[in-house]
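Tokens in:
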């Protein structure tokens, strides 16, 4: 009975956190904020609001100063932020704090981004008379200059992995670009950045050969699910409100067919994303991440296209808010590995297990996650 009461209390607390976060996002994220973010302005007031609510440390255990949310609640929190198109690196900060505190550090103050994004970009740690410095360039880093801190995965000369807490002000931005959603993506040169001993921690064992890739991909998976839900919400509302030939267009079979296809893609993507929450942390299970990122990327493209079709010409205007969701879907599906990259990973993981290992790989997820 005590165990059941504890589970009910946790469920109640999780529901309260999600409800408050949803209300906070709705209150602070509007068209004015989104338009300003598109123009390159950092949304300071919304960030202060999420900080005051303790959301950046939501996935950090309570004993380490966080909210101690479970992976499923954390995933839903990321989905709700994407539903509202929150133009902040909130999800990156949540995952970065979870990784950093797991490695033994304290909660990082302010917004945090993750680097490197691409597996071919390698950051190295070099020890010398002047101390420990970083070498290397990370490309397409989200909010690479606007976030005060970057959590960087670096390797020493022996190949040992370390997590480094790096003030982005010390790094150089080689190239500033924006994705289709106008979110900043920087090429950051960490060469010559000197670090204190307290800014370097041995990387957790869960960071395997792909480094931060599964964790970044897990973020985009949950964000795409939230963005697709927003698109579906807009499409359903519009179809029921738009009247053509004397009746709502939702009554027409062609529109119903498009909405049904979109709903099927959304359901499949949600199921794939839910599988990530069975691990201790989002991103721990490499195979589940690969499947989810691939499936959600496919679904995101289909849902965005179908919802634009339902809206017709109205959906392509700047005045209608649909584009805030669809532009993010088009961007997120390509970041932290597009579908072909993760599909290749799936094939390689399955082939490495051999024929006899395929079934255990699919059904014995905790064991498979540890092996990955």
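Residues out:
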């Amino acid at each position: 009975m005590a165990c059941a009461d504890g589970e009910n209390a946790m469920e109640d607390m999780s529901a309260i956190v999600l409800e408050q976060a949803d209300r906070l996002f709705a209150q602070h994220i509007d068209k004015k904020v989104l338009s300003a973010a598109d123009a390159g302005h950092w949304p300071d007031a919304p960030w202060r609001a999420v900080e005051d609510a303790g959301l950046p440390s939501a996935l950090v255990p309570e004993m380490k100063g966080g909210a101690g949310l479970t992976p499923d609640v954390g995933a839903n929190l990321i989905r709700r932020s994407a539903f509202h198109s929150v133009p902040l690196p909130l999800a990156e900060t949540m995952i970065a704090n979870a990784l950093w505190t797991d490695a033994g550090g304290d909660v990082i103050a302010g917004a945090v981004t993750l680097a490197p994004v691409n597996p071919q970009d390698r950051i190295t740690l070099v020890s010398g008379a002047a101390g420990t410095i970083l070498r290397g360039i990370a490309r397409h880093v989200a909010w690479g200059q606007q976030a005060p801190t970057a959590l960087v995965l670096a390797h020493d000369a022996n190949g040992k992995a370390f997590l480094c807490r790096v003030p982005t002000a010390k790094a150089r931005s080689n190239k500033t670009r924006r994705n289709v959603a106008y979110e900043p993506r920087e090429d950051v040169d960490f060469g010559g950045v000197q670090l204190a001993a307290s800014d370097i921690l041995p990387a957790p064992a869960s960071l395997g050969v792909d480094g931060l890739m599964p964790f970044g991909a897990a973020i985009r998976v949950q964000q795409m699910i939230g963005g697709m839900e927003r698109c579906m919400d807009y499409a359903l509302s519009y179809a029921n409100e738009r009247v053509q030939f004397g009746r709502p267009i939702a009554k027409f079979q062609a529109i119903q067919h498009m909405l049904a296809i979109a709903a099927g893609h959304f359901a499949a993507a949600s199921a794939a994303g839910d599988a990530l929450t069975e691990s201790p942390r989002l991103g721990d299970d490499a195979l589940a991440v690969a499947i989810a990122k691939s499936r959600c990327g496919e679904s995101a493209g289909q849902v965005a296209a179908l919802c634009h079709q339902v809206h017709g010409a109205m959906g392509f205007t700047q005045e209608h808010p649909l584009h805030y969701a669809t532009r993010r879907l088009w961007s997120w599906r390509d970041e932290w590995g597009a579908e072909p990259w993760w599909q290749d990973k799936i094939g390689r993981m399955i082939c490495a297990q051999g024929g006899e290992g395929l079934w255990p790989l699919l059904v014995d997820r905790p064991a498979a996650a540890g092996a990955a």
